[in-house]
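Provenance and format

Records in this collection were gathered into a single text stream. Each protein contributes a sequence line and a token line. The two records reproduced below are adjacent in the stream.
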Amino acid sequence: MRTIGSPRRAASVVIVGVDRQGMGLLRECLRTEATLPNAAIEFEEALDQIRRQRPTVLIASFNGDFNRAVSLGTEVSGQFPNITLVAYSQTSDPERIRAAMRAGFREYVVLPDDSDLLRQAVHDAAYTPDSEEATGELFAICGSKGGAGVTSLAINLAAELCPVHSVCVVDMDFSMGDVASFLDLRPKRSIMDLLRDLERLDERVLKGSMAVHPSKIHVLAQPHEIDEQEEIRGEEVLRLLQVCADAYQYCLLDCGSHIDEATLTSMSVSDLVFLVCNPDVPSVKNAWRRMQLFERLGVENERVRLIVNKFDKKAQLSNKDIEKHLNIRVAATVEADEKTLNEAVNVGRLVRDVNRRSPAARDYSNMVSLITEGDEFVEVKEKKEGPISWLFN
């Protein structure tokens, strides 16, 4: 865990838009952790109050119309990055949670259920770090369809990053996630173990739950056996990802092709989203549908990197065809090498360890710059009609 430095006496808190009942719940929860105002202020007054008071914590109401809270969070996180932002609501709502996280809120709490979480957030804000430490970056990798190559991309790209960076791969596919098998690992603990005991979760517990591959990839795996599906809440996933980002420089999130609360939250809060598709009509059609979903989630095109896996110059669709129909350029390709890929999967090894001269191994290595250096997004300006245009209307 990061070193905790000099404590303050109590956190200074500004509360915005909370009604009398909510103020009562906040006072009961934080009576020993913070200095609270007598009443909440209106959203219109918030920025002026923050400039005068310079609080350590801002608590904003997400009840009713939450757009004002989102706007306030965006402004405060941009102007005052050291203030801890907390969203308060009477209900747990996935849409509101994702909006809060995109706006820079650290926690989303429903009282009295999340009293411990709120106390911990305010307690942590009452300490001044001895030194600033950068938070790691999250990269969600999702497929346009099953078998697109998400897991192969995640583990082989992670292996290329490992020599000089701390990297973890988190298996976020709660339906059929199989990252551990792809690397021939037998984890003792799974992601479900951590989600069931979030109160104890910190960097030490997280790293102790990782299975470590000889390449130095740390893997947080799905359970080996399929249990009865438990409901996964967005705020639980968020808490886990926050600890991952504190513990590792780069966190690659294998989201598979299944859409659920875990993958939606992962994509919403990731620094970049890698959309993996194959050069065939069904895959590109589903990639188009994923792009529509990203737009609804508030994932801007600038955060999306389109990866064409199983690339073949003789394929039915060229990169230009794919770019034309998705209106986004191809950021990278992974050349088709079915023989090597199949062998790697069957024996649980990295592609480079099976055949270092594989064109796929070369392409995985070339993709490192997408993560370490970023990549300028270029939108396809002209969208001409093609032979399969009717599929995308």
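Adjacent record:
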Amino acid sequence: MRTKYFEGMTSHTQQEKVFKIQHFAYKMRNLYTENPELFNEVVQYIPYIVHTNRKDNLDIIYANEKLLQKGPELEKLVELGGSYLPEISCNTLLKSAVEKAKIFAKINDGHAVCNYIQYLQVNKVKKYVYSSKLLLDENLYFNLSVFTEEMGMIDKMFNSVFGAIHQNPIKWQQFQSLTKMEKKLIKLFADGHSNNELAEMLFISPHTVQTHRRNIYSKLSISKAAELIKISLVLEIL
């Protein structure tokens, strides 16, 4: 019975890896609520960090051994609670994650998932952590996380692309200023669609599409399609 919780854990494209983690988070959340005994058996073998925390102050209620074994800072986080997060986090990304969690809590949808990135100090070294957050009950979140260094090419992409954005206040503000339409177009541009194709798909003029393209390149300080593809993956994760 345990084996079904490990189905599909083979090599995929970068986006598929992200979707796989999100789907696995659903499975583990449901197992946690429906069969705690089996959950406690399975959680020992999965390659992810799992924890539950409170909605109001982010204090950790449950954490699997993989979290506790990562480093003394994370042990201290479990002990001291959410108030310790600013001491080991990138404040920019922590603020972004907290705001996303607040919005997510208001939505109150048990089928929704909130994805976010943190930059945590572990064994005195800052590392990116990707997390999928789901609602557990009216008071708690269920979280499944993985260090991006364990995600192959995604880690290199984050350090080369996202690292340069979030650690530069001006670039971060520009990144945050992307509109919903611009974020949607980034993915479509990255998929290789032309201006005319997008104009037809979105019922706008080719000139409007080109204006959006220029604005996106300007906000992100990029000039090549290859850079846009990498940022598209960042947006998928965020």
